[in-house]
Amino acid sequence: MTTASKTATSRLPDVIGAEHVSSNATDLSAYAIDQKLPSVIVRPGSTEEVVEIVKYAATEKLALIASGARTKIGIGSPPARYDIALDMTRLNRIIAYDPGDLTLSVEAGVPLQKVAAALAVHRQFLPLAAPFFDRATVGGTIASGVDTPLRQFYGTARDYVLGMEFVSGEGVRSKSGGNVVKNVTGYDLHKLMIGSLGTLGVITRLNFKTFPMPAASRGFVATFETLDRAFKMRNCVAQSPLTPMTFDLLSPRVADIFSSQRAGQLTSSTMPAGVFSSGQWALAIGYSGKDNVLLRYEAELRRMAAESSAAAVIVLEDRDRAAAFAFKREFIPIALESSPAATIVKISVLSARLKDALSGAIKAAQLPWAAMARSLGVIFFALLPPDLSQASHRQLASTTDQILAAGGLLGANVTIPWCPSEWKSALKIWGPERHDLAQMQKVKKVFDPLCIFSPGRFMGGI
Amino acid sequence: MDSRLLQDLKKLLGSEAVLHEPEDLMLYEYDGSVEVARPNCVVFPRTKEHIVGLVEIANRHKTPIVGRGAGTGLSGGALARRGGILAIFSKMNRILEVDVENQRAIVQPGVVNADLSAAVAHTGLHFAPDPSSQKACTIGGNVSENSGGPHTLAYGVTTNHVLELEMVLPTGELIRIGSSALDSPGYDLPGLFVGSEGTLGLLTEITVKLTRLPESVKTLLAIFDTLDDTTETVVDITARGITPAACEMLDGYTLRAVEAYVHAGFPIDSAAVLLIDVDGVREGVESQAEEVAEICRAHHAREVRVAKDSRERDLLWKGRKNAFGAVGRLSTTYYVQDGVIPRTKLPATLRRITEISERYGFPIGNIFHAGDGNLHPLILFDARDERQLKRVIAAADEIIQFCIEMGGSITGEHGVGMEKDRLMPLLFSEADLDLMRGVRDAFNPTGLLNPEKIFPNKKGCGEIHIRPLPVAGVSVT
Prior knowledge:
The complex is a heterodimer.
Chain A: H1 3-9, H2 12-16, E1 21-22, H3 25-29, E2 40-42, H4 47-60, E3 64-67, E4 84-87, E5 94-98, E6 103-107, H5 112-120, E7 124-125, H6 138-144, H7 151-154, E8 161-167, E9 173-177, H8 189-193, E10 202-209, E11 211-212, E12 217-224, H9 227-239, E13 246-250, H10 252-258, H11 261-267, E14 281-288, H12 291-307, E15 312-316, H13 318-329, H14 331-336, E16 343-348, H15 354-364, E17 369-374, E18 378-383, H16 390-409, E19 413-418, H17 421-424, H18 437-447
Parallel strand pairs in A: 2-4, 3-4
Antiparallel strand pairs in A: 1-2, 5-6, 6-10, 7-11, 8-9, 8-10, 12-14, 12-15, 13-14, 13-17, 16-18, 16-19, 17-18
Chain B: H1 3-13, E1 18-19, H2 22-25, E2 41-43, H3 48-60, E3 65-68, E4 85-88, E5 95-99, E6 104-107, H4 113-120, E7 125-126, H5 139-145, H6 152-155, E8 162-168, E9 174-178, H7 189-193, E10 202-209, E11 211-212, E12 216-224, H8 227-239, E13 246-251, H9 252-262, E14 272-280, H10 282-298, E15 303-306, H11 310-321, H12 323-327, E16 333-336, H13 346-360, E17 364-368, E18 377-381, H14 386-405, H15 430-443
Helix pairs in contact in B: 1-3, 8-10, 8-13, 9-11, 13-14
């Protein structure tokens, strides 16, 4: 932080009141991004206050990075500048919830858990079962663009966000979409906000479609000696009429990292015994419905598992099912904590090439690794170096380069959402340069012409 | 018509692909809405190089250019509001690639919606968005308008099925956005471009998801004696967390027109029916159908029929999908709206529409996507009478005003186009609209591509332009 930035930010208490502004050194360190500290933390309590702060930042040309619980703040390039940390957690109200219409409107800083609790009263939910679930906010989850195991059935946020309100880089309060389940009025600007890492606007309010909870749910886990057998079953399920809610493949090491004490803390659950076995691939499938539907799924899955030479199968109900789901949901946080230099490579690929993409990554890996692959074509490949040494860095860089090259041949999208700050600038975290980058730059210029939002954090230096 | 422009167009496309005689142009001044705008010339490009060339010519001659598929649109989106070149994509209608394993297809924008589903039917896949005009409308048009349809209740609208787009920007650049693989890194540009109503680029290739056909489908026809019972049933189905694949409502007025036209066995003496599809795995469909039937009966359904076989099912759906055409037989003209309301407000809104119909003295037929609260009131009137037209617009505005008061929106799937631009300030502030205009101008800086659509003219906003109207039933809707 520069002296100029300090002087400029010192006037922020006049903008929103001193009690919501802090420049205390301990506080600031909690808001560091890739070791860069802000000059000040501001905690607005309303959209109006966000507008005032953004206007102030625009006038003073101060770089502003909005955050919620900061669980995923590490995603993206290191910030080029960072003056104001805009903490959105005071904007934490559920503004409107119409269970009869299955629509919901919330402020950006509302915790995922608070939303889940409010919806559960009406036996509804939001399919945002995102990692860091116990702490994350809705706004941060959307802005970071993380997916969830439930995307197999419910899609990603772009499929159920109905509208948003946000503040643009010139401090203008804007909105797009609406709060009805079907709407084509105006441009869908809110879709641009999803996964934009706060580079286009400060999201202040979000509208969602909610979903009824299924009558009952089960988990089915089949374990396999080899990747080939696991894929044999995966292909059977994918080609069947079954429409599971979740459908993920977990690599042999996942059983080990799931059994750590830290994993239990991160999921607030205990993994039931005998679900995942060390050294085995596991296919974890969630399905829902009434009794006769559940029986059909179980029968078919058991048959397919047997035909694919599964080593063991287990059907999970109630608390055990919820626990296994929580571990899957928290795969990324668990992986991140299982190595001092954990790096997550995300490989999105056409579903018929999933096995090739996964095999390619395994072949490239020069370090311990664990993987979770969503059947519809997304792999989270966690590289788990033993330390932050030069040697580990070299092995990691070489591994990710090879995965990138192999992914390119398969038409995959390869990015590195998580890696140690120290290594970030040396890794191609956004993958190869994209042909549509110029169009993204046009969008950025409209939303944030002064480049005050999260400068440098997005693809191509945006 | 500028002869040098005409010369350039003919040189690019061949003279047989360029129309400019008034009697030819007349055919292209309409779409499925009541809007009218005549282009200066109509062209039929065949390749993406033609599109690049057309944009170059439009820029050189500073003349507007508008893309158009089958012209079934319902908001004037593909009309040449400022004249200029109307580029019809009907000759760019090849399915370029079908990847069954990965459930993807790459199509040219002029491919007819139903043709894609028909082409892949033998693989057990289909293209899920199913606008009622699907036998005529093009996928390029669907992408531009973000079209819906009855089955979008469960399967989502067009934007949920589009992965990658290739297009020519008004600046002449040929670009690709998104990717065939999931999670294209960076901003969700396809999310912005789908539904931008042809104001940002001219599509040349579209990569869509194909969806597996369900194992089992059941079609129910629930027959009611009052409108209130019908709408309350929809409220109850929604509130109980049942998501049918489709949940359509046809009121008695439209039913009678449809039955006379299609002979699908709709009960002509009822107040309204619900046409409901439930689908999925066999076991789930059985119990869900039973559950839906019970809810209907609890709300005094006179009868709940289940289609015996696919023939009966197809006939019921044929009735639904041809309903606008059927209503066209009752009146010289209709004005159809597309407002959306929260599902809980259906009973109140239908009552208000009935009241407005009685007060203005216009019959209003209601045939719509009840399951997602997307209304389609069809106001029947005689376009030859100028006074009627004014009153129709006043009645329609009252309906839209009510939708907005209920927390709804002005269009669920038909688009804003040139029909509803004046209504945009009812939903969006000038700041909201300015940001959207900023996005448009970033991609369409000279405004030559599909000008004066979606966003109201800053000066003229709020004015209602009186136009001559087409005769109903000219388009397949």
